[in-house]
Amino acid sequence: MSSITNISQYDLFRILDYVKTNCEIQNGNESVYPIKYADIFNFAATCKIFRRIVWDWSREMYHSLELDLLHVVPHKRITVKFIEIHETLKRATKQKRDRYMDIYIKAMMGNPLLNTIELSYKTEKFISSHQSIFDEIINGLQGNADRIILDPYKIPKFKEIIVDIGDHRIENLGRFRNISKLTLTANFEITDLAEFCSKNPSLVSLEVNANPFFRLWKNNANRSTLSKLKFLLNDNAMDNNYVKLALLNKLTQLEIDWKPISEQVLFFIPNDNVAEDNVPMEHWDRPHDLEMDEDFTSKRPKMDSEYESLFEGVTDSKRPIQVLQLLKAFSEKKKSKLIQLCLNFDIDDEMLQTIAQIKSLRMLKCGFCDPKSIRHLKWHPTLNRLTILNKGHLVTDDIADLLRKK
């Protein structure tokens, strides 16, 4: 008894040609490919061998059917690109839209290996159907599809959510469970995020474009498992609100955004006593290999005789007092675990003196209002990486001395 796998490739391609023609006759007015060519889609979705047959037959058809997206392919990470969804459904009727979304959600939630889900929507263009489609995807991710029944035993137990949708809104964060990493760039209610934090006690990494974190943990910050935190500084927040973040006893990485700084100068300070492999470095800038001709001549000398004014730093009246109070709280802790500190703005002399008192620190990334402040880091016992965020060419005696001391 022969099977379809015993049919020659030529005959298989002819069969697919006939199926394609039949689909076009029956669904001539259909604009959504996975629906118009449903017979080919279902054939390819049967198994890996059949998907390869469709790929060899017509790669254009394969991509148009969005098989890698709409079929259960065991990827550990999936990015939901809403712009592409809107483009696909641009002229679809409500019935066709619903069918497409059902296929999409069923495929997404049928992936047993899914660990990271990213929601991407980077546009300011208004699309009236976006919020309803976005909410439907969120409901599906939470196991509550609108029209289909998801098997609770087959729903993937993903651990990381990345939401990158600009100023567009997200709701019902508190319905997610067992999430350990959340990266959130969106418009949301802080109470919703607070509920998310309380309902996900295993949360270890949180990056958000908001600031009132003192409300997230309330009185149980010292029991939080959070080890990485990134947030946007709010000039209007009360000083003691930020101080409460020092109660996060397991916090090892802290990043604070205040204003963008365009260029960087990166220095590596070797320290044989500290193993860099033990510290995750994926979000820290690494040096680039530069290839230059032997006759290359720099437009300016490597060492400036006098320090050139390169900074557009903050004045004392505008400096982030909240951060200073927070850093003081960390420096006063007997057993701080803070290893990586990234301040995406210029810091003054007093703030750097405070940072120098955080004995657990191994990596620092910041800008300087006055480069002479770097002298405070000369005798830091564990610091082995310094990234300087400032514009222009920066080489000073204090930096050179710091490198020698280390």
Spatial strand order of the main sheet: 1-2-3-4-5-6-7-9-10-11-8
Structural class: alpha/beta
Q: Please provide the count of β strands.
A: 11
Helix percentage range: 25-40%
Instruction: Compute the CA-based radius of gyration.
Output: 27 Å
What ranges have pLDDT less than 50 throughout 5 or more consecutive residues? 281-317
N to C succession of SSEs: HHHHHHEHHEHEEHEHEHEEHEHEEH
Count of separate DSSP helical elements: 15
Shape: elongated
Q: Could you describe the largest sheet, including whether it forms a barrel?
A: 11 strands, mixed
How many angstroms does the end-to-end distance come to?
A: 76 Å
Arithmetic mean pLDDT: 80
Measured by DSSP, the beta-strand proportion falls in 15-25%
Protein name: F-box domain-containing protein
Notes on the protein architecture:
This protein is α/β, with parallel strands linked by helices and 406 residues long. Among the domains are: 57 residues; 146 residues, no CATH class. The protein contains 15 helices and eleven strands. The chain has an eleven-stranded mixed β-sheet with strand order 1-2-3-4-5-6-7-9-10-11-8. Strand 9, helix 14 and strand 10 form a beta-alpha-beta unit. Helix 13 runs parallel beside helix 14. The longest helix has 18 residues. About 9% of the residues have low confidence.
